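Subject: Sanity check before I submit

Could someone independently write out the structure tokens for this chain? I want to compare against mine line by line before I put it in a report. The sequence has 298 residues.
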Amino acid sequence: MKILVIGGTVFVSKFIAEYFSANGHEVYVLNRNTKPQLPAVRLIQCDRKAIDGQLKDLHFDVVIDVTAYTAEDINSLLDNLESFDNYIMISSSAVYPETLQMPFKESDERGANKFWGDYGTNKIAAENALLKRVPTAYIIRPPYLYGEYNNVYREAFVFDCAERGATFYLPKDGSMPLQFFHVEDLCRFIQSILAQRPERRIFNVGNASVTVKEWVEYCYRAAGKTPQFKYVTGGTEQRNYFPFYDYGYVLDVTEQNKLLPDLLPVADGLQRAYAWYRDNKSAVKPKNYFEFIERNLK
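---
Independent answer below. Compare away.
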């Protein structure tokens, strides 16, 4: 297939572009060319909000839109796409209000989430804009994505703790649930959609949920270590020492499992994530969790 990936230089979009290129497809990436490009893709250099003829006379079998954060993002791209067969947008679980009963279903009403703010409401607007203009488009709503190329300091922070042999400061009793999805499973799910062409247009995706304590244990195990925990209670703001909000949520992934039941277990995915991080630490910008812990929790 001839595939257009919007993005292609950072984490999810980079992994998607590399994955489909490695699987024999002709992959184009649309980005501003401010970061190194993958060697096996074709670059369309422009800002998605300032396309000036770069897509003229091009037809794509699939558009995979990883960087649509607003309705403007959607409309500016569609105004310049001359011809395509399939459109897949990577949206977010942030479109669900935190007040809903879990697990969140695709049919649940979307709305503002106090933890995600404008990010979530802008994603809702982007979804609406896309389905208004391309009713046959597919929308994928992942939870926390992880894996190779992840430049966000989440599992990388826990890997750093494990390598230091550090005690891990865990929020409350460690039972908060979180849901993850490996970027390769995201690619495999896109493949399943294109192969099976389901009538349903919107899908939650993700592994079964794990507790934050289990997730930390998996991260330490990937680095060959076993964590010792201290539990943080009281009024300390969680995001100062831990890479997630004090907000646990779970998505209903029943419909995903009908198309792709065999997912990479989170423990195995974190093994892969650590192997990549160990050799690419400069690709991840750390946050000052260690400094906060040293000053405020020890």
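---
OP: Matches mine. For the report I'm noting this point. The two ends are 55 Å apart (CA to CA).
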